[in-house]
Amino acid sequence: MEIKLIVFLPLLAALIAGLGQRYIGAKAAKIVTTGALFASCALSWPLFVYFLSLGDLSLNDSASRTMIVPVLDWVKSGDLVFNWELRVDALTAVMLVVVTTVSSLVHLYSWGYMDEDPDQPRFFAYLSLFTFAMLMLVTANNLVQMFFGWEGVGLASYLLIGFWYKKPSANAAAIKAFVVNRVGDLGFMLGIFGLFWLFGTVSIPEILTAAPDKVGSSVGFLGYRVDTMSLLCCLLFIGAMGKSAQLGLHTWLPDAMEGPTPVSALIHAATMVTAGVFMVCRLSPLFETSQFALNVVTIVGATTALFAATVGLVQNDIKRVIAYSTCSQLGYMFFAAGTGAYGAAMFHLFTHAFFKALLFLGAGSVIHAMHHEQDMRYYGGLRKHIPITFWAMMAGTLAITGVGIVGLGGFAGFYSKDAIIEAAFAATGPWHMYAFAIGVFAALLTSFYSWRLIFLTFFGKPRWEQSEHIQHAVHDAHGHDDHGHDAHGHHESHDGTAGYHPHESPWSMLVPLAVLTLGAVFAGFVFHNGFIEAEEGATFWVNSTLAFNAHLMHEMHLVPMWVKLASTVAMLVGLFTAWMMYIRSNDAPARLAANFQPLYKFLLNKWYFDELYNLIFVRPAFWIGRQFWKIGDEGIIDRFGPNGSAWVVQQGSRFAVRMQSGYLYTYALVMLLGLVAAISWFMVQAR
Prior knowledge:
- It is a single chain.
- The protein is mostly helical.
- It has 30 helices and 6 strands.
- The protein has a two-stranded antiparallel sheet. A two-stranded antiparallel sheet has the order 3-4. A two-stranded antiparallel sheet has the order 5-6.
- Helix 18 packs parallel to helix 22 (507-532).
- The longest helix has 32 residues, at 21-52.
């Protein structure tokens, strides 16, 4: 019963808030949705703790480690038979905690952030609907139910990204996210179809059990004979690439920052973008049957980590920096899975949910304080004005950069990201050293852009007066109070503030920051044994379908000391470089950009992926569309169809108008001619 409540309470809340908003009002809608999510969260944590505490039970005691909760009979059509049921194991429990915790805190945070929005019930209904779809995805026991949740989060993300639908850029971003994800979903669908064709079922446990028997088989595809398991795993991974914004299908994620900031924290940090990682880990025994597919996952993940980190170096929008950071960290999770460290991948997914949601919500608090300004070039000196937000974002930054001391401990990212890097070194796959090298270098870049964000936002002198948003805020304040504000504003403008006074966020926004700060600080230390230690991890993940590699986790702890120190050294180099460029020598970034202008433009334009896709896909698609429109639709269908018929009727009516003279003898003549014609026809027929 508890499992059903966890999953369906958000759906019930979404229906009440969405359909009943006119009757219950905004406050009641917020209470219902937020209360439902906190109830789901409260039920999820004991379940997670239960699975962590099963270490003393027999590894073969599957009844206590996997729960299947039937909901209803769903489809019976020939060989295609499956039911709607909720699967709960250790992997599900991890995702339940991540989804419900972050979602409940985002709901509470939105009380303050969206306080002035006139459409709050619709917003909270969308948040709860998204949460339900994500919970359906992670509790799926068959591929069709997983696809239902997969498409559900896609729909909800479209609605949330385009929530401010009167804003053209938000509409464009929502459409872009929807279209790019449809490309990935095509691959996912083909993979599901292929698995049903090969195994005759869509049940995940049955497919994973039978998968080893299909190793070495081949199938015809696009005129070639290819390895069956490699093909199906790569098709499934294409779906993961779209949902988790991996290189090639990543272009939607930065633009999705057009949605409200709480949406970014929920969807683009902790939940939807991690669905691809979850899917690969859920189907990891399937991927283990194809080394080629694992190589693809490793290469794409590592390259994405590098790509996104390089682009994040030069972004000025505070939310886009964190968005590219998310893209990069997802790359870490994928190359961890590709090298066989599925436990480390899920551990980083778990810790990343806390510190990345913290960074997004912290950025929202900064934006709230700075009158919706998102350009970091117009920040500076904010740590004294919004100290709680400052320390929360410091905790998130310390976590994502992996600050810690080998042998003693550190923040969350120190445990999870370093585990991925060490596992990549200890792995035996052909691309493991590529992943290791990229992981260390990306850690340096992560440290640089993360501390760059902190230094530009909270340190240095205020640069607020350069912001149009701040100028409008000051102008509005002057318009409402003419008692000495002009002189005050003139005086304040000398220190770069333009007379503006940032304010700390309300408690509804600060409480989620405080809770997530605890996760960013302690989640790694508290939970690392259950996720990645060889013995405890093997116990925790048993019967969860995750292919936990206890040998790799053991070897990971035996790597040389220089490997363990590599990411820490990279973090310190990134921190020192950021300090030199943005604290000690403020003109250094401009000089570097001028001296390396081609490289700077290459990174600023995001490796020109958008321009390339516009040239290869968008323009030809629009040209083809115009041809179908002008030639096919208007030139042929309309011309010879409705427009042609209308022309014939119009010309016939004009002829009829000429015949309508209004003279009686004319009508009598026509009647006589008609009578003669009729008699003549009958006489001819009589012969």
